[in-house]
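hey so i finally got around to running the thing on that chain from the lab meeting. sorry it took forever, my laptop kept dying and i had to restart like 3 times. anyway pasting the input first so we r on the same page abt which one it is
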Amino acid sequence: MESRAITRYIRQSPFKVRKTLNSVRGLNVGQALDHLHFSPEKAAKVIEKTLRSAVSNLLSQNEDLNIDMEALGIKEAFVNGGPVMKRFRAASMGRASRLRRPTSHLTIIITNEK
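ok and heres what got predicted. didnt touch it at all, straight out
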């Protein structure tokens, strides 16, 4: 059985989120949660929250089945780019410089099948 969780409009670039996500891709859920909980990176908190949501979604869909938490694994985990907010900041000699504030969308799919 599969379950998915999606977090949209994360206020961090997809490149930075992908760096943290690559460290937990392919692990089982317990190991991934341990790794993310003690990681100092900003993206780890968002990924951990999304992973816990995917586990909760799986448990709520299958209340009648007994699911072993150690048997759950991350099947897919990917980050796509979201909209980029464009802002301007004052620069020298009366100019304006553009600031790009990227966002990203995170999707995690977990499964209990091998």
